[in-house]
Write a structure and sequence with these properties.
three-stranded parallel β-sheet; 16 helices; 496 residues; 60% helix; alpha/beta; four-stranded antiparallel β-sheet
């Protein structure tokens, strides 16, 4: 956890709250060496977001924030991945007890709720292949935002929204209006003398509209007449009529007839209520139709009275221009929305294709390296773990082997594969990872850590069981050895 803290992590204080409780606030001094030059820093528990550059005598000189400190480490380790922060790169591969990145089947998850898409994207960035899709992702985000903005304007009715049918109708309107305006322009003098030609068009259109309304009115009046006729008729069977029935059928059950008549009366009551509601609705509809006819008649009167008025042609052109602008605006917004939808769809398709191509390459690289690592650690016949990458998810399994040791060995193998294939500068593996793995396999895994000059931090217990060569390797590489007597801090709070 302290190594993770030195690399800009926050888990030390998040998962080891007893640290400050038992020791009080304190500092950690950190020394890095890059290209033969030493750099000294101090980071404390009281304000872990602040890091101090120090002199070689560990005296604080300049305070920088945690992000600046991480950026310094990224630059000094020569990591030239623009789209990935230092912690997003390093933090995942520090598998330390207490952190949330220990799920053996989800090695790309830095925490359990992280999305699969985020995990897959981070892996692409780790392999420094993100530039191949970043431009597409930015363009997709931009286009999607434009589409969302237009859709919000539609929902709030800031601008009119139409469908495909209305768009087609507008196209016809635009063509008709443009034709009429063209005719007016071409024959302005003639129209000025004989405005009736223009008026006749509108009169014919209004007459057509009136005929449609009159036909609807006739249907409504017919329905209303039937409803009112049903309301006026009395369909109840009076009790005195039962006497005639008895005369012909002496054995008839009068009480049963009365029950039937009672049911009939209730039914008539329900039907009567429905008929009254239908009558009300039809009367309202009839009133609306009469109002429409009155409006059409008034407009017809205006048109017929304006035949001898030269100003009518100006009004007509103004009306046409407004209608043309309205239709063009509606269609323009519809076409813009369709273009946004097409652009987003095409960009998503292009992005998916480019991303899957990159993931296919990364998947093959990692699986080949996993096979090589497994063969070295377990022998050529041992099945290696397999990573399957999808556009927004992934899976990691060792087929036909569900043992605990195999699962942790697969997690270590995954980290080593990424470590050896990418600019990842360091990893850390805690001792619990090795507990259930065969001793010989652990020994061979340790030899793999040493095949690179990059930094690997390993905590391990009981090294005697791993054989002489491994003991020698671990002893030579050891920077800190702890025991019951040699504890990490100045205080051992495990005992009272």
């Amino acid at each position: 956890m302290i190594v993770d803290f030195a690399f800009g992590g926050k888990s030390l204080l998040e998962y080891n709250r007893d640290l400050v409780k038992e020791l009080g606030h304190h500092y950690y001094f950190i020394k890095f060496e890059f290209d033969g030059e030493l750099h000294f820093f101090r980071r404390g528990t009281h304000d872990p977001e602040l890091v101090y550059r120090c002199t070689e005598h560990l005296e604080p000189e300049v305070a920088i924030n945690l992000d600046e400190y991480r950026a310094f480490l990224k630059a000094c380790y020569g990591i030239e991945i623009e789209d990935l922060t230092f912690r997003s790169l390093v933090g995942l591969y520090m598998r330390i007890w207490g952190k949330e990145n220990l799920n053996v089947h989800r090695p790309l998850h830095a925490f359990p709720t992280q999305s699969g898409a985020d995990c897959v994207n981070n892996l692409i960035k780790t392999f420094n292949r993100y530039s191949g899709i970043s431009a597409l992702m930015k363009e997709l985000a931009r286009r999607d935002e434009e589409r969302s903005t237009l859709n919000r304007a539609f929902r709030t009715q800031l601008v009119p929204k139409i469908g495909k049918r209305a768009h087609r109708e507008n196209e016809e309107r635009i063509a008709s209006i443009e034709l009429e305006i063209g005719e007016i322009k071409a024959n302005l003098a003639k129209f000025a003398i004989n405005i009736a030609e223009i008026v006749d068009r509108d009169v014919l259109e209004l007459k057509r509209q009136k005929d449609q309304v009159l036909a609807t009115k006739l249907l409504v009046e017919s329905k209303l007449a039937r409803v009112q006729s049903n309301l006026q008729s009395n369909r109840r069977v009076a009790g005195k009529h039962f006497e005639g029935v008895v005369a012909f059928f002496p054995d008839v059950d009068i009480e049963r007839l009365a029950e039937v008549e009672g049911f009939h009366s209730k039914l008539v009551g329900l039907l009567r209520s429905e008929l009254k509601e239908s009558e009300r609705e039809l009367l309202e509809q009839l009133e609306r139709l009469r109002s429409e006819i009155a409006v059409i008649d008034a407009r017809l009167g205006e048109l017929l009275s304006s035949i001898d008025q030269p100003s009518f042609i100006v009004d007509r052109v103004y009306s046409l221009a407004n209608n043309l602008h309205s239709a063009r605006t509606e269609n323009g917004l519809f076409e813009l929305s369709e273009r946004f939808n097409d652009d987003v769809k095409n960009l998503k398709s292009s992005l998916a294709s480019a991303k899957l191509s990159i993931l296919d390459t990364i998947q093959r690289q990692i699986n080949d390296e996993l096979h090589r690592i497994t063969s070295l650690a377990y022998g050529a016949n041992r099945k290696s773990p397999e990573l399957t990458l999808r556009e927004n998810s992934y899976s990691y399994e060792v087929n036909e082997d569900t043992g605990t040791g195999t699962a942790y060995a697969a997690l270590i193998a995954f980290d080593l594969a990424v470590f050896l294939l990418t600019p990842l500068p360091a990893l850390a593996h805690d001792s619990f990872l090795y507990k259930n793995i065969e001793n010989d396999s652990v020994s061979r895994l340790f030899s793999l850590y040493s095949t690179t000059s990059k930094q690997s931090f390993v905590a391990i217990d009981e090294i005697e069981k791993y054989g002489r060569s491994t003991i020698e390797l671990l002893t030579t590489s050891c920077v800190l050895k702890l025991s019951n007597d040699d504890v990490l801090f100045i205080k051992d709070w495990r005992t009272s």
